[in-house]
Specification:
The chain is mainly beta. It contains two helices and 15 strands. The protein has two domains: 38 residues, no CATH class; 176 residues, Jelly Rolls. α1 packs antiparallel against α2.
């Protein structure tokens, strides 16, 4: 009976750790096939989202106009998202961050070789695209994209250089990240994604209220 209770408490402690927003990184250095590692994948039925040669490859023929295909995961108490990408084959690259409590989101995208544009919505409605001048990716090479939250400002970095600042007062906290691609129906292409970093790996997890969390754990231990 004690073994069962200890196991339950370990599961409880693990769930508390997740709630604290543990920094996360993924280099996809694992066998070809399903992405796994807590990622959700979405496709339009004809696009494959899978690990190929130790990176995520989004590829195939788009079946539906502008259907997003890619990888996503929930996020809590983190303010930085970074990844490497190669967009050189008819598919664009998107990163979208959401605050599901307010409906606010920021969506950023670019076509191969082109500048990035963004849409910043305060309530889930569609605001239209705004181009970011001077934000052209390097064609036919891997680029590094980083989005960092600073209060209501979201700063975009491309290959280590700040290229834009997006404001959204209603996007108070990032709760979901989507890295994806889309295109017109019939388009054949691919997008490569690698080295995703969320937060600062190696940093101390951000606790909302450590004393409250420890008190809850101690309460469970006393029940043994």
């Amino acid at each position: 009976m004690k073994t069962i209770k200890i196991g339950a408490i370990l599961a409880f402690v693990f769930s508390v750790a997740l709630a604290w927003g543990v920094p996360f990184s993924d280099d996809f250095d694992r066998p070809d096939g399903e992405v796994g590692n807590g990622w959700s994948t979405q496709t339009d039925g004809t696009i494959k989202v899978e690990i190929v040669n130790k990176e995520v490859l989004i590829h195939g023929q788009q079946a539906t106009d502008w259907a997003r295909c890619g990888i996503s995961r929930p996020v809590e108490n983190e303010t930085k998202i970074q990844f490497d990408f190669l967009a050189n084959d008819n598919f664009n690259v998107h990163i979208r961050v959401d605050d599901t409590s307010t409906g606010a989101y920021i969506d950023i995208y670019a076509w191969p070789g082109g500048p990035f544009s963004y849409a910043s919505s305060k309530d889930g409605s569609w605001p239209g695209w705004t181009e970011i001048p001077g934000s052209n990716m390097i064609a036919n090479e891997y680029n590094t994209l980083k989005l960092e939250q600073d209060g209501s400002n979201f700063i975009l970095y491309l290959n280590g250089k700040e290229v834009g600042k997006i404001k959204n007062e209603n996007l108070e906290k990032i709760t979901k990240v989507l890295i994806s691609s889309d295109a017109a129906a019939g388009t054949v292409g691919s997008l490569h994604i690698d080295n995703v970093i969320i937060g600062e790996p190696g940093a101390t997890p951000q606790a909302v209220d450590p004393r409250a969390k420890l008190s809850a754990i101690w309460g469970e231990l006393k029940k043994i």
